[in-house]
Amino acid sequence: MNKPAIYITRQLPESVIAPYRNILDIEMWSKSEQPVDASTLMDKAQQVDGLVTMLSDQVSSELLGTAKGLKAVANLAVGFDNIDLTSAEENEVVVTNTPDVLTETTADLTFALMLATARRIVEAADYVRNDEWKNWAPYLLAGTDVHHKTIGIVGMGRIGEAVAQRAKGFNMNILYHNRSRNTEAEQALQANYATFEELLIESDYVVCLAPYTEETHEMFNTQAFQKMKDTAIFINASRGKNVDEEALYDALVAKEIKAAGVDVYRQEPIRASHPLLSLDNVVALPHIGSSSEETRTAMIQLCLDNLIELFNGNVAKTPVTEKKRLST
Ligand code: 8YV
């Protein structure tokens, strides 16, 4: 029997892929410096049984409608806002994602970003490297404490809970806002539910971990930043489109909030000319929430395991669309 053919839209390490070559006929995008272009992705989608895609690949209704042999799309991310799910369902293409394996790693990065922003770690490291450190001064690069402060987590899913766990270790007071109450987090992590407005008003650290949906589109806007304390630090480690970036810039310049740590942007990658990068009180990262070697490997393996399960006629381990087997 022929092996199912799959196309992977980035170059991934052969050491991780190799064991799967016995079961799957795997082709990968060949250029390490640039992402797959839309027309190659469209062509490949028409030739294979499965795709492994990244958040930056648009899996559109046009692609799904024309790729008649395509049975499954395994997205290398917990999010799937790059995939037209309605069209996937209509075309009976099963979509999978990579939840759980990236939870702790993304929570580590979120917390690191919060600490880096509060304690001005990037500025301080540059200060030493640029030979600016001439004298000791009592308030030299003085930051803001994290411990014993109030953290407000917007989006109390798996990653939100893992961030709350870290916050607990820092003796923080934990508020959260979510579509629905998370009673488990309330009990296990002493997290207190707050309306979005209450959370904005009361938090020292406002941390956005909500997935991107129509409801969350630019929920962090001028009004939201105005409600925050002028000492508040804003962290975004979920999706750029949850934030009105102009409003964030204006709030930072007007000192309506103190600082921001950002891992995600409306349009990625950003360029050095992005307004937020002109501000010293911004720590900007290149969307590396889940980027540890261990987690990236686990994510790739989960994508490929999902495809194998599906091609074997089983339900995928982590399906996004309705749990169904591929019709054989
Ligand atoms: C992605 C992410 O894994 O999982 C998500 O939803 O945002 C990231 O961790 C990364 O962008 C690769 O697609």
TrEMBL record:
Residue ranges of every copy of the D-isomer specific 2-hydroxyacid dehydrogenase NAD-binding domain listed in the record: 111-289
Molecular functions per Gene Ontology: glyoxylate reductase (NADPH) activity; hydroxypyruvate reductase [NAD(P)H] activity; NAD binding
Gene Ontology CC, one term: cytosol
Top-rank taxon: Bacteria
Record Gene3D superfamilies: NAD(P)-binding Rossmann-like Domain
Keywords of this entry: Oxidoreductase
Protein's name in the database: 2-ketogluconate reductase
